[in-house]
Amino acid sequence: MNQVRIAIIGIGGMGKKYAKIIDRGIIRGMTLAAVTCRSEENAVWAKENLNNQTKVYQDTNQLFEESDQFDAVLIVTPHKTHPEFAIRAFEHKKHVFCDKPASISIDQAERMNHAAKVSNMKYAMMFHQRLYKKYERVKELIESKELGDIKRVLLENTKYYRTSYYHKSSNWRSSWNHEGGGVLINQGQHMLDIWQWLFGMPKSLCAKICYGKYNDFLVDDEATIYMQYENQMSAVFFITTGEAASEERLEIIGTKGKLLLIDNHLKIWRYETDSEEYAKTAKAFSTEELKIDIKEEEFEVQVDPYEEMLQNFADVILKGESLIAPGVEGSNALALANAAYLSSWKQETVSLPIQAKLYEEQLKQKMEEESKKFH
Fold it and tell me: Which residue numbers delimit the Gfo/Idh/MocA-like oxidoreductase N-terminal domain (predicted)?
């Protein structure tokens, strides 16, 4: 194989964006073989805007009936449908690239992971923010132990402000029945992936979640998650879609230093002596004898690196390179969201991994409550 023939399942907003990138021929070793559209409007768009060699299907069944026409799928459909299409693709021995989240529940995500393993096909997630230079730099500082042992982390994200117009722009948005949640299952998946990518998974967490704080729906539009780690690292994660003042703030405190990332500005404090060692040996009441060096770095605003993610997927299939965001890791961000919801509903701290069956039962109750209220 010298070309990956990819089929895009779902030509909504993001599906169109991916289709145009691939159709332009800038992804080496990848061609757009087919797209599937649920609406006549999107089918017309595909026929008018894509290469005439790209097949347009309005039925996913027809796509899989002609599975010899493609090698991989890119799934860009509403969250609840991801498992069905991914598992079906794996059963047809197709590689899978899935937009976030993997699904709406950890049980379904694990089924996808199992299907990928059985099929021995490549499985990737569109967690493109891993390629942001600022996060790569933070990961480098953590893994090099330049900050020493991490003792405390705080992440606050208010950059995903959303209006009522946005929430009502598609009937699947912002609902338990169609999206499987709110900010944690949607925008929050990117930040929860970055979190687990940098810090790993906690042993337990406690969440305080606001449902419909800024909107007339029953899902979450604000969440604060307190996480507990085996090494006693203190960790707090906050995200909202209700604050118009956009800012992303990440603070990491280690025994050898501290970093503060605000949007694209990074400030790093480095201690000449490990603070824990200094506390034991210094002949001073506080930091009078602790030498601290402070440096600052600025990162350019990046265009979302979708092209790099697609190129990586092609190179993994054709050249055996490593995935930037393996699909199986989609379970981690999803597990954090599911655990946070469960903690909020039960009003207690929950251990990870959570009981998948219990979460499914609780989620079903939320769906039924929502259906009764709005239908």
Answer: 4-123
Q: Do the Cβ atoms of 188 and 237 come closer than 8 Å?
A: no
State the total domains in the chain. Answer: 2
Residue pointed to by tokens 């979460």: 359
Residue with tokens 């757009």: 32
pLDDT of residue 38: 86
Q: Are residues 282 and 177 in the same domain?
A: yes
The model's pLDDT over 101-157, given as tens digits with 9 standing for 90+, comes to: 999 999 999 999 999 999 999 999 999 999 999 999 999 999 999 999 999 999 999
Alpha carbons 62 and 69: distance in angstroms, whole number: 11
Is the whole-model pTM more than 0.90? yes
Buried b / exposed e over 95-111, threshold 16 CB at 10 Å, is bbbbbbbbbbbbbbbbb
Question: Can you tell me the distance from the alpha carbon of 310 to that of 299, in angstroms, rounded to the nearest whole number?
Answer: 23
How far is C-alpha 226 from the chain's CA centre? 19
* Contact (CB, 8 A) for 181 and 219: yes
DSSP secondary structure string, 154-186?
EEEE------HHHHTSSTTSSBTTTTSBSTTTT
User: Domain span at residue 217?
Assistant: 132-302+333-374
Taking phi over 0 as left and psi of -120 to 50 as alpha, with beta for the rest, 351 belongs to: beta
